[in-house]
Amino acid sequence: MYRITNAMARKKEYIEEEVIEKAMHLFWHNGYEGTSVRMLEKEMGINQFSIYSSFGSKHGVFQESLKCYKQKVSAIFNKLKTATRGVEDIKEFFYDSIRASQELGNQKGCLVTNTYNEFAEKEDDVIRKEIVDFMEGLKAIFIEKLRLDSSKDEVTIRKQANYLLLAKHGLAAASRVNSKEELEDYIEMTFRNI
Amino acid sequence: MYRITNAMARKKEYIEEEVIEKAMHLFWHNGYEGTSVRMLEKEMGINQFSIYSSFGSKHGVFQESLKCYKQKVSAIFNKLKTATRGVEDIKEFFYDSIRASQELGNQKGCLVTNTYNEFAEKEDDVIRKEIVDFMEGLKAIFIEKLRLDSSKDEVTIRKQANYLLLAKHGLAAASRVNSKEELEDYIEMTFRNI
DNA sequence: ATTATTTCTAAGCTATCGCTTAGTTTTGTT
DNA sequence: AACAAAACTAAGCGATAGCTTAGAAATAAT
After folding, report:
1. CA A45 → CA A15, A28, A51, B21, B47, distances in Å?
2. pLDDT digit string (tens) for B25-36?
3. d(CA B132, CA B116)
4. Residue B87's closest CA among B183, B193, B173?
5. Is ipTM beyond 0.95?
6. Which residue of A176, A177, A179 is the best one to mutate when testing the B interface, meaning the one whose CB has the most B CBs within 10 A?
7. pLDDT-derived band of residue A169, with 50, 70 and 90 as boundaries?
């Protein structure tokens, strides 16, 4: 029997934040079901054992990927949050989202909304909470901006609901368009009467 | 050696049109990837052998299911085709679609649009053609109705493109809403400025 | 009744899924 | 150098995917 010591062990040969970013892009492009652990293994550049010891499960990798995504887009969120013009800021938010999606090298819209669609029929409270938080957060910001424009008018419950719809379907549209131009048309169409 | 005769053989114990309708509902509810051949076997009430001898492959079953769906909704299409009011008819088309979806016992929006989303990144020309034909057909009808309303105005290319977007995203929205009321709100929001 | 033909049931095929385990290698402390 | 702890490689686990096949059962002309 050896007594327990504080001997140090072998070092990790990868940085978790770095490999998760690669996983995120894979999930973004192929969806959750469309991404296998073997694919993750290849893309992340680490063995399955390392994946499971770092993140527990494929689901765990996905959760971390979602967090990574949220962090990547947080700059756009903060810009919208601190903006002061009103509805025009919301419109710009969508254009910022398109740009960010392209800069991140991905044309598959919004990872959160893609996930919302894919997980719609699944019973997965962890993911559902992540998504709903994101959507409701966006809705709250939208309503704030709306208040800036119509300081005299009341922001009715129904108007608030419409803004949640806008957040949901607007971002969803980004995942379905065939081109940047098409998405721009869609945004213009959507905002024509707000 | 027996000589070739015209002896008749055993009869099929199922009607292909009937079992395909059941398959369609399964695909509608769970998507293509979310539906396994074992599930089809159970739902259609026939053995895997029969599935493969009748339809060749899972893909074949899906193709027939899409055709079945198109036939089911053809009544709504024809109503829109022969309508004469204009944009108001398009709006009613969406409401008819909601009603039909509920009457067919399914709340998963439009099978064609769901398929469009699920097959977006797949290389599957057969399915893609089915979907594009459907969308373009709908767009053409929309433009016809638009002409009724603005007989003097020109129906620009850009306006036409917007109507394709409307067809695509409007139907897509139907697959993402949480309630009938939400979809109605979305339709109202969409049509507020057309 | 015999025969050819088709449909049926049920078992099994290979490939891949998410995940685990056995055993080796690397590490810092003793 | 001896040792415990952690991370590595690679093989393999049971379950399920889409699909096929072997053989029994049913059919109608002969």
Report:
1. 11, 18, 10, 45, 43
2. 999 989 999 999
3. 9
4. B193
5. no
6. A176
7. low
Cα separation of A131 and B176, whole Å? 14
Mark which residues 30-89 of A lie under 8 Å from B by CB: 30, 33-34
- With beta carbons less than 8 A apart as the criterion, state whether A14 and A46 touch: yes
CATH class of B16-191: mainly alpha
User: Strand D nucleotides below 7 A of a protein CB?
Assistant: 3-12, 16-22, 25-30
- What is A90-153 written as a DSSP string? HHHHHHHHHHHHHHTT--S--HHHHHHHHTTTS--HHHHHHHHHHHHHHHHHHHHHHHHH-SSS
Q: Would you call B114 exposed, middle or buried from its count of C-beta atoms within 10 A (0-12, 13-18, 19+)? A: buried
Give the whole-angstrom CA distance, residue B35 versus residue B24.
10
Report domain extents, chain B. Answer: 16-191
Spatial separation of the C-alpha atoms in residues A98 and A108, rounded to whole Å:
10
Contact A160, A143 (CB under 8 A): yes
The model's pTM is 0.82
Average pLDDT of chain A is 81
Q: Which two tokens stand for residue B60?
A: 């074949």
Please count the other Cβ atoms lying within 10 Å of the Cβ belonging to residue B122: 12
CB of A132 within 8 Å of any CB in chain B? no
